[in-house]
Specification:
alpha/beta; NAD(P)-bd_dom_sf; SDR_fam; Rossmann fold; seven-stranded parallel β-sheet; globular
């Protein structure tokens, strides 16, 4: 449980969902974790959800780790610059910044999608990531072996085509992570650092569980209404796979690639909290998108 002892990690946007779980698992594995985001107990971001960065830090400490929560709006260069000045060292940078779901006009073509909402998604999903890299990567390259993880939604193969039911601004914001990983990997390589894009599968985030009216304890009840939810995974699953990646001395073999929780789980032998090993993106391509009945046999 101490694979990352002595490492310093920063999870940008670690307020909830996959980012929160990654932060907790990094702390459980021994890393000191800085958690940044916009929602604190003193006030909420535009996402307007109750989860806070302080709660994430407390979950890390409950898991036996050490953490510090720092309120940062990563779209504000001055705030990110101040964050960089505050940190002496950085071994692992997880860029999970997003917060754009409320701006998403599902299924609306670009000429019908609210323009300001679309541009806000681009700012949250692309600009914030570039600002963060500009100020924090100089810390990551101080010593060889650094790891940068850009969170996204969908594998490179899944995002090689436009996914029906989303929207063009959302697609651009999320697909950009693949190019970020390619470009950052090239720029980090001379410094012995690794950059990847990472996507969880069908994620049982706080918002998704709430949307389906279930909890992590009874999530399978939602399968009666949404059968393919059977392939879903806990946020912890992704967190465990990212820890395995970070602890791999040969992780640079992944640099420039987009990796999924299911893919990493196979390589590193990682299971979800229920002991299963869901491979959601393969399932979605081979079962859900193929119009087959929900059946996770061979996929979890």
């Amino acid at each position: 449980m101490n694979e990352l002892s002595g490492k310093v990690a920063l999870v940008a946007g670690g307020t909830r969902g996959a980012s929160r779980a990654i932060a907790v698992e990094l702390g459980r594995a021994g890393a000191f974790v800085y958690v940044t985001g916009r929602t604190t107990r003193a006030g909420r971001s535009e996402v307007d959800r109750p989860e806070t960065i302080e709660e994430t830090a407390e979950l890390i400490e409950k898991a036996g780790g050490e953490a510090e929560a720092i309120r940062v709006d990563h779209l504000q260069p001055a705030e990110v610059a101040a964050l960089a000045e505050r940190i002496d060292r950085l071994d692992i940078l997880i860029d999970g910044l997003w917060g754009g779901d409320k701006h998403l006009g599902w299924g609306q073509p670009v000429w019908e999608h609210d323009l300001e909402a679309g541009l806000r998604m681009i700012r949250l999903g692309i600009d914030a990531h570039l600002i963060t890299s500009h100020y924090l990567l100089p810390l990551l390259i101080k010593r060889p072996g650094g790891l940068l993880v850009e969170l996204t939604d969908g594998t490179a193969e899944a995002n090689a085509k436009y996914r029906d039911g989303t929207s063009l601004p959302f697609y651009l914001a999320k697909a950009s992570a693949h190019l970020l990983a390619i470009g950052e990997a090239a720029e980090l390589a001379p410094h012995g650092a690794t950059a990847v894009a990472f996507t969880p599968g069908y994620l049982r985030s706080e918002a998704m569980l709430e949307h389906y009216g279930v909890t992590e304890d009874n999530w399978r009840d939602a399968c009666a209404r949404v059968p393919h939810f059977a392939i879903s995974e806990s946020p912890t699953f992704g967190g465990r796979t990212v820890v395995a990646l970070a602890a791999d001395p040969d992780r640079q073999r992944w640099s420039g690639q987009t990796v999924s929780s299911g893919q990493l789980a196979k390589v590193y032998g990682v299971d979800d909290v229920d002991g299963s090993r869901p491979d959601a993106w393969r399932y979605m391509a081979e079962v859900a998108e193929a119009g087959k009945p929900a059946d996770t046999t061979g996929y979890r």
